[in-house]
Every structure is written in structure tokens, then in C-alpha cells.
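> tool_call: predict_assembly(chains=two)
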Amino acid sequence: MGWALALHGGAGDIPRTLPPESREPRLATLRRCLDLGSAALRDGRAALDVVELVVRELEDCPHFNAGRGSVLTAEGTVEMEACVMEGATLRCGAVSGLSTVANAVSLARLVMEKTPHIYLAFDGAEAFARDQGVETRDPSHFITENNIERLRQAKAANRVQIDYTQPLKGQQAPQDPPAPVDDNCQTG
Amino acid sequence: TVGCVAVDAAGNLATATSTGGLVNKMAGRIGDTPVVGAGTYANALCAVSATGKGEAIIRHTVARDVAALMEHAGMPLRDAAARVVAATPRGAVGLVAVSRAGEVSMAHNTTGMFRACATEDGHEEIGIWTD
């Protein structure tokens, strides 16, 4: 038995032609987070602390779809969500519908540790964040120009998109395969 | 969606996932990330964080299914993760997982998944596509 960690920055239709300016910042963040998490585990930090530490770092990277850089709803807003879980105890915490909390994963951990509940959402989650004194930011902090453009294109195509379905400059947006008529994926 | 799973030197497992959801999602939509057992799950055997199409991940209870195959069918982590991902619609799911024994799985049926892993014995991997 030994320590181990794995992390992801999202999955989807990532084109192999992804230009270096889109690819390299993400790979650099993965490298930085891997080093951060490995060092923490090597120093004897608990797994729960390490996953929170790494996800906070990923949330702060505007190139990934979480925290700063979150994609936009049809209304042009951000609604962030996060979850944390500890294996040995099955303790867990989750949040949804956040628009001002800088690091949703840390609020999820507070739900786990400070409440008798598992899941807080929207106004209740935001109120809990204020009570706990976690860092908040103006909602505009989380919105990037790239994601404004992605929403514009998704609306034009009348599509709901998962991570990395954005078009490259000068190219048409890649299309998901048509969904079956009884599949409500497109409406969420 | 971003996520991290870890097992520490004492064998404690944990997982965390965070997301902004889908581009152009309806306001008020909840995805798989905060739904315990769908996009995120950990028990005494493994820790899992998933990414992809939330509705598919919820329908297939992806994260809990990986743990359940280990718990009830005695599968090793990699087999369990591969089986669960293979059972979901193509192009819909990716996940990272670690077991209590320090085994790592990074499985996806999408074109790519930004991912990385490291283990105590010095193995490291960073990737996007299936090579």
C-alpha cells in the first residue's frame, strides 16, 4: 500500500488539433496540481485535505470548467457545484447553484463538517457561505470572455455542450450526435 | 469539470469534484457532480470522480457502480472502472479513481480527458487523448 492520486480537468470532444495556446496552460495546471498533491501526500497530509487542496487549485484556473472559468447558463450566469466525500466514514458534502463562492469545494467540505446535512443548494448554500465566512467574489469574477463566446455559439446552434466542445477559431462548432427523441440530455 | 481522488499513506480514501456544469444549461439544472454516487463517491475500497454528460452519469450511477463492482463482485479497480465506462453512452463519461491499495484508473469513452496521476512508487502520467 502507498499513496496515490489522480485528477481530471474534464472530458469531452477534445480535438487532437487543439492548438498549443489552449493545450499548454491546461497541461501546465495539471502538472502543477499533480506536484502539489504529490508533495502533500509525501508530507503525510490526509487524503481529504489533498483532494480539497488540488481541486481548489483547479477551480482557480480559468482554463477549466469550475470556479473561475465556469461555463454559463442559458441566462449568462454561473451556477457552480461541488462535492467532497471521505471513504472511511462515508461522510460527504455537496453544494449547487453557487454564484459568488470562490471555491465551491471548500464550501462542500463545510457542509460535510459543520452541518447535519449532505447537500445545500442555491440561496441556502449562498447563505451558509456567508455564515461560514468563506471567500466570495462578484459573479463577474467567474465569467471569462471565452465562455461568453461559447454561450453565444451554443445558443446560435441551440445546443447544450459538455466540456471541450467549443469550436476552434474559424471553425464550425463540433456537433454532438443527435440524441434520441426520448433523451432529455439537451434540456438538462 | 475538475476532480481529484487520493489515497494517503494510511490508506484513507477521498474524492472531490467541482464544476460549472454545461454550456447553455437551464438555470437551476443540477448535474452529476453534487449527486453523491453519480459523479462523486468514495468508500473504504475506492474513491471516484467523474466528468462528462451529467445526465448520463446520473442515470448510470457511475461512481457508485465502480465501488459496487469492487464490493460485490470482487473486481479490481481498473476492471470495474472500465466496465462502468463501457456501459455508458459513447462520448459521455470519463472518470479518475484510486483504490485503497494505491491502484489508479483513468478511464473515458470521450475523445479525450485532461488527466494526471502519480503514485508513491514514482509512476506519473499526464495526458489528454487515448494514445
